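Work Package 3 (structural annotation) set out to generate three-dimensional models for the target panel prioritized at the project kickoff. During this period the team completed the workflow that converts sequence records into discrete structure tokens, so that structures can be stored uniformly alongside our sequence database. As a representative example, we reproduce one entry of 308 residues exactly as it appears in the project archive.
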Amino acid sequence: MSDLVPSVDTVDTVDTVDTVDADTLLDWFADHARDLPWRRSDVTPWGVLVSEIMLQQTPVNRVWPVWEQWLARWPRPSDLAAESQGEVVRAWGKLGYPRRALRLHEAAGVLAAEHGDAVPADVDTLLALPGIGTYTARAVAAFAHGRRAPVVDTNVRRVVARAVHGAGDAGPPSNTRDLADVEALLPEDDARAARFSAALMELGAVVCTARNPRCADCPLVDACAWHRAGKPAYTGPTRPTQRYSGTDRQVRGRLLDVLRGTDGPVDKATLDLAWPKAGQREECLDSLLTDGLVEQTPDGHFALPGEQ
């Protein structure tokens, strides 16, 4: 679930064969869907939007408690918009990619000021919001408003690659091809299409996984092109595995942890204790300043934005 990974639009659209039976998948989803809090009937479109931003490249079990805390504290866009950026970054905690918190704060301000504190249902209107990309706009239209919109994340791409195209993996992303593939599979009815999108994503998350897919539990196994072909190994281009230990992401997180744990600005010596490698630490601090996640005070101290 991510708008952080850029898509490439240079791949020709592939004709999609209708091998995903909507009734079969929807029946499976009715019986096996996880009881995730943002799927419940009383959740507002704002709650869905917050969940989609948080779930980008972050596991469900880490998002769940933070999402509940956010919605209890900021149940409407205007509530979040009225909060300081620093407090929003602090509340984001260890979800990772904290620029998402600033984007969500900025989007909340626009929703409060220009949309009557409501989250729009139209994809193009959603795309105009700060920090809202192709995936998130369509996910909110589908999951918050029940609209027919192709929703494509890594899990969906993998299911389509296997069930429809007979490939073990989806290869490099392409907005044009990927959206066309899913569009061709969607039922025409809005409500069924929205639920189908959720079901396709769920299947990829819990059954048709990247490693050790549970084909025996898959409702689509009999029609799956990859399974019928004997599950050939994928030989195309792959993304490099992302490590975390020792990366700039870890260093930035350590620096932010120091600031989250204080009520005001800290001196440079305190931040220096967060990471031993001075060169990397300085570069990461500079990047946090550039991204607006940290601010420097006139006397040379450092703080979360708006907390000088």
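The domain at 248-303 is CATH 1.10.10 (Arc Repressor Mutant, subunit A).
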